[in-house]
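Appendix B. One record, verbatim.
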Amino acid sequence: MGAVIFFKTEDLQRTTDFYTSVLGFSSWLTQQNIEILKYDNLLLGIQLAESTSPAPLLGLFVNSKEEVDRLYSRLNDLTEDVPAINSVYDIYGFFAKDIDGRRIEVFTYLIETPDI
């Protein structure tokens, strides 16, 4: 299982530039309104949004749809929706909350991604 932490931003380019130029991250994957950056084994997703939020979103990505479905059944009443394909980002997954109420996304990429 891999993970990416997502931050929302009102200025995708400015925030991406900060993390790449100032902190030394590099681009890992570019998608519509999202730039996923890499630093060693850390993946950081910068997502364009109408407003920012101090709480990040933890995205847990697994290797297959079957793994997504297995985790969906294990999370039971903590899920927010059923697993589905998101064609904008070429993923299959769902949203849930951890036991403290923090939002998480469990998904698998439906496209080839670079190695971490």
